[in-house]
Amino acid sequence: MTPTPDTHFDPDAVHAKYAEERAKRLTESRGVIHDLTLDSDDPLKAYLADPHTPFVERAPIKDDCEVAVIGAGIGGVVTCAKLRDAGIDDVRLIDKAGGIGGTWYWNRYPGVMCDVESYIYMPMLEEMGYIPTTKYAFGEEIRLHLDSIGEKYGFKDHALFHTGVVKSEWDEGETRWIVHTDRGDEIHARWLVVSPGILNLVKIPVIPGMEEFEGKAFHSGRWDWEYTGGHPDGNKGNMTNLADKVVAVIGTGASAVQILPPLAESAEHVYVFQRTPSAIGVRDNRSTPDDFERELQPGWQRERMENFTAVLLGHDVERNLVDDAWIYMAKVANPTIDPTMSMDEIARAAEEFDYEVMELHRKRIEELVKNPAIAESLKPYYRYLCKRPLFHDEYYDAFNRDNVTLVDCPGGVTQVTKHGVVANDQQYEVDCIVYATGFEAEVTPFYRRAGHPIIGRGGVALADKWKDGPRTYLGVFTRGFPNLFLMPSPGMQSTISVNFTHILTEGAEFIAGAIGLLEAKGVRIADVREDAEDDWVQQIVDGYADRSEFMAACTPSRLNFEGDPSAANPLSGTYGGGYGDVFGWRDLLREWRERGDFAGLELDEPYVES
Questions:
Q1: Centroid of chain to Cα 221
Q2: What is the pTM of this model?
């Protein structure tokens, strides 16, 4: 897929077409989701239950530890490992899941895989002496790798799984965080790390009649293998229980794109309910070459990880080590600029290249989907960066099967009945509904993703302090919450990357290193100085790149708050502005640790409310 200059670009016609398609999808119900928790009274809370690991009763635990880490995904796991490397063994990992893995624990649907290269996405490959089996790893391989880190570094056996935190509260007299759980535990910790991840809140849409459906229904992030048959091992066509079942897949995002091909091979019939088609490029997954490991030098994974990030940021590199389809995002986000061009000419050139890239995606659909009407319905009409790009090699082929029906419904599914799904005023009778509706947006407020109240000095809740937007120092600390470390993530004043593992690794190394330094100095309390936080927040606001005009013209998605980009907040920006200065932020964190002077923090001093 290479853009060619012979593509005719008529800006007026393109704008009109994109606006027409956008308008179809701006419905009143768009973005309305169930606010579910396991302790709520909503009958749909069953969608959150763990189908993977049996719940085991145990007595409540009262414990004192040096570090409590909430969240057993990549961020939490790497932090625990780095803490062990720093000589801090007294670590307690807590997660409401039944085991290690985070999003890879929950998402075990058929075909689940990562669309970022496995050699840079799967953390600590060098430390573990492990080479992924394919260029893009399936979910089970990722989950087992994360689990093996917990085994090797010895923190898995002391972890509290199937344990939800209900409150974390700073105790000034004890100089400890007290973590209360839904199993009656009381964990006292000198240092608290909160690492909830960014895809941890399943998005269950509000559709009238959902609770009336008499068949089987579940979210893709809670796949019911007992119902479908099979096992999440990457095999296709192994869901033998679906041979006589009609299945509805609601959604055409990343989860649905991966689910459809194996589901189509197993079920009697599959209806795919599409609100907005995705832009799906070539994935070209393949086995790791036999000679891959022989060519590696120490430090290879960090080098490869940083090379990928540099390419995505538009930096010049001697060689693109990953060299995959993410290059389109890099080129669209960082267009080639001639110094003699005016701003209007730059915008026109960038939009024309964007159009060429989207035309490639639309032509690919024409080539792969035999039915012209279905092909037309699958074509995405919007700017490339309006939605997260996807990559898959088998999704479009599935629509050539007689047992797969695309239901193009820009207004979405409007009702669920006892026996099926209603869209476009037509009912489709089904035995099973898969809500492949994804997760709340990455910029969902941190305190919501944390899933519990975090109470700092003076009884102030993080949610109240951040009610108007985040306030941090380095994207990791926040004043009034001593000895608390927040895992950096989008929307909270750190930085972002397509390869989120890169950000999590830098964050985990910083947090573990900072705790090690503080422990070595014998520090009891470390809080943020008011001026340090104010300065950092101002840097974020000053560097904020307002993309609301661009996003307002986009098709509704989680990236533009379902069509209302006015909800974007400069306080939720990134270090360096725009798409973030990953390397500048990384260097700040490394320099902070190397200096060892705890810049921006006040240590063991009385706290005075400002």
A1: 13
A2: 0.95
Contact (Cβ atoms closer than 8 angstroms) between residue 424 and residue 407: yes
Cα–Cα distance for residue pair 517/383, rounded to 1 Å: 46
d(CA 573, CA 580): 8
* E strand or H helix at 423: strand 420-423
**Dist. CA 338–CA 355, nearest whole Å:** 19
Q: What does the pLDDT read at residue 610?
A: 47
Give alpha helix (H) positions in 379-529: 395-398, 446-450, 462-465, 500-521
3-state secondary structure (DSSP) of residue 570: helix
Task: Return the ∠ at Cα 91 (arms to 88 and 95), rounded to 5°.
Answer: 150
Distance CA 234, CA 256 (A): 15
- The whole-number pLDDT of residue 607 equals 44
CA distance 294 to 297: 8
Segment (H or E) for 19: helix 11-24
Helix ranges (H only) for 313-342 are: 327-333
Segment (H or E) for 263: helix 254-266
Domains of the chain: 62-201+441-603 (3.50.50.60), 202-283+371-435 (3.50.50.60)
Smallest CA-to-CA distance from 159 within 49, 81, 86 is with: 81
Instruction: Give per-10-residue mean pLDDT for the chain (610 aa).
Output: 65 96 92 75 86 96 97 98 96 98 97 97 98 97 98 97 98 97 98 95 93 96 96 73 98 97 96 98 95 94 98 95 94 88 90 95 98 98 95 98 98 97 98 96 90 97 97 98 97 95 98 97 96 98 92 92 90 92 97 97 67
Residue type, 149: I
Q: What is the largest CA-CA distance in the chain?
A: 71
CB proximity list for 176: less than 8 A, separation 6 or greater = 64, 170, 188, 189, 190
User: How far is Cα 385 from Cα 559, in angstroms, rounded to an integer?
Assistant: 9
Q: No. of H helices and E strands in the chain?
A: 19, 19
* Model pLDDT for residues 175-231, shown as the tens digit of each residue: 999 999 999 999 999 999 999 999 889 999 999 999 999 999 999 999 999 999 998
Residues of 353-389 as b/e, b for ≥16 C-beta within 10 angstroms? bbbbbbbbbbebbeebbeeeebbebbbbbbbbbbbbb
**Residue whose tokens read 């009891």:** 524
Q: Which residues contact 326 (CB under 8 A, 6 or more apart)?
A: 116, 308, 311, 312, 389, 498
Q: Is the dihedral of CA 64, 67, 70, 72 positive or negative?
A: negative
Rounded CA gap, 512 and 352, in Å? 46
Question: 167 by DSSP, 3-state: which?
Answer: strand
Residue 28, class by beta-carbon neighbours within 10 Å (0-12 exposed, 13-18 middle, 19+ buried)? exposed
Distance CA 412, CA 203 (A): 15
- Spatial distance between the Cα atoms of 158 and 69, rounded to a whole number of angstroms: 12
Q: Is 314 left (phi over 0), alpha (psi -120 to 50) or beta?
A: left
Q: Are 38 and 45 in contact (CB under 8 A)?
A: yes
Classified as helix, coil or strand, 563 is coil
- The CA distance from 571 to 494, in Å, is 11
Check: CB of residue 232 under 8 Å from CB of residue 141.
no
**Other Cβ atoms within 10 Å of 337 Cβ, number:** 11
